[in-house]
Amino acid sequence: xxxxxxxxLAQVGALLTTARLGRTHEHHQQIGSTNDRALEWLTxxxxxxxxxxxxxxxxxxxxxxxxxxxxxxxxxxxSVVLRPGxxxxxxxxxxxAVGVGLCEGLCAVFGDQLPTLALKWPNDLLLDERKLAGxxxxxxxxxxxxxxxxxxxxxxxxxxxxxxxxxQATATSLAQHxxxxxxxxxxxxxxxxxxxxxxxxxxxxxxxxxxxxxxxxSRCIMIGREIQVEQGEGxxxxxxxxxxxDDGALRAQPREGxxxxxxxxxxxxxx
Length: 271
Description:
The chain has two domains: 9-217, 2-Layer Sandwich (BirA Bifunctional Protein, domain 2), CATH 3.30.930; 226-270, SH3 type barrels (Roll). It is 20% helix and 28% strand. It has four helices and twelve strands; from the N terminus they run E-H-E-E-H-E-E-E-E-H-H-E-E-E-E-E. Helix 2 crosses helix 3.
């Protein structure tokens, strides 16, 4: 069987090993945004674990509404509906739990073939310090219960020249780091991601960030590194990332000295 035999995202259901995630699934050849569709479906009664996938997005978006490059048939674009009920833990660090699940899913598929795979706080996966995947979490409240959509885009088959010129220096894909015989179809990858994501989310919803903290920190590329932290109006401060707080906030020490400070939502760059 060809390594890319399981590339059709519409067929991921046959490969699932999850209890909930992806068991209800709709696939689109092209859509504006999988997250937008999942939010719409959530309002319409989508069950917990419902999955939206697409081969292409015309209005894919990432954190802070930034556009997400989404050409047809090359990558994974997916969003999952979650109905955890009344919150037992703060959800501000949900993207960190999603990052752990995605990272462990890729490791389950590729083993040690991706030695430079890492997490970049708060919502990116990097490979050779270039962006491989991004995460977008959105929430709505229904009374005292929270409803969530978690979306992610993973660059799978694109070669370097297939990225827009503005992304070629900062983005990467699995294809650029694997030999042809090592490559795996998108549906097979997605099934593994959903399996590990389900496990990570179960831990997170039961115990908050503390339950996945060691898994996150062991793969976080930023800890101990010099970073640039957005300070508003285009200003940045140089600092050293020293760890994560109990709620998932990044803690940094100014490079020039002084008390450490928390970073909760600002943009952060590796120096």
